[in-house]
Amino acid sequence: MTRIPLAIAFALLAIPAQAHDNQVSIKVSGDQRCITSNGTPNHDIGQFPNSGDPNSFRAQTISVCVDATPTKTGRVTQHRGSVGISLTGIFFRPGTADYYDASSPRGHSRSPASGWNLEGMGAAETLGMDAQNAHVDERGLYHYHGVSSALANSLSGTQIGYAADGFPIHYAGSRAQSSWRLKSGTRPTAPGGRYDGTYEEDWTFVSGSGNLDQCNGATVDGEYVYFATDTYPFYPRCFLGSVSSDFGRKR
């Protein structure tokens, strides 16, 4: 497997002051690493509301803790919602709660009846994403669905955050290749059309087609880490460690 350079920040992480009112602290106490922020990124954000996102950005307190010494549990845990948090205190939330719904004026709703779950980056324009692959939810909470170039470029090393189970998340550009691939053919039910990545169900895991596992992770220099990638799934959507209860409630 391709070896990927690793640069992991431990204990207290000093985040340089930015001109965007980003306030964050990362502290380790016992076996917990706790991240607290004001929910404001360290870069400019897009215009909200916009045609795809009716919500307005609102700074707010974010506080979560994850395992400071994560270990594998021996099983894979599926998880929806926010899957991790950046070193600047902004959530990674690649998936959505929206499904194809022909009866809705917007073409999608929270009803799962169709079985076709709208994929965040696959429907980025529909969902009003900004240039950093992020938008805001109904609470005004800004969150990333894909990799933010501004975030990645603002940090030293490749680590951009922590996953919900405490393992680090790195961005290594083209050196980290997802093993998820688009299905061939067309969707068998409405909305129909070819598999193009608009929905989560358009994707399938093909072991060995990339250098990452089904959770978008790999063991590098003896340590297990997750990767943010430029293609689906963008961030880990399943976990090999124990997911923090702080990510079990709505995030």
Written overview of the protein:
The chain is 2% helix and 25% strand. It contains one helix and 17 strands. The chain has one helix at 149-154, and strands at 24-29, 32-37, 62-67, 77-78, 84-86, 91-92, 99-100, 108-109, 134-136, 142-144, 159-163, 168-171, 180-182, 203-205, 217-220, 223-228, 238-239. The protein has an eight-stranded mixed beta sheet with strand order 9-10-6-5-11-12-16-15, with no helix packed on it. A hairpin with a 7-residue loop joins strand 7 (99-100) and strand 8 (108-109). The chain starts with 23 loop residues before the first strand and ends in a 12-residue tail after the last strand. Mean pLDDT is 91; it is low at 1-19.
The number of distinct helices, counting runs of at least 4 residues, comes to 1
Mean pLDDT: 91
Low-confidence stretches: 1-19
What count of structural domains? 1
Beta-strand content: 15-25%
Q: Please state the overall shape, judged from the principal axes of the Cα atoms.
A: globular
| H/E element order | EEEEEEEEEEHEEEEEEE
* Rg result: 18 Å
Number of DSSP strand runs: 17
- Secondary structure class reads mainly beta
Task: Name some characteristics of this structure.
251 residues, mainly beta, 8-stranded mixed β-sheet, 3-stranded antiparallel β-sheet, 1 helix, 2% helix
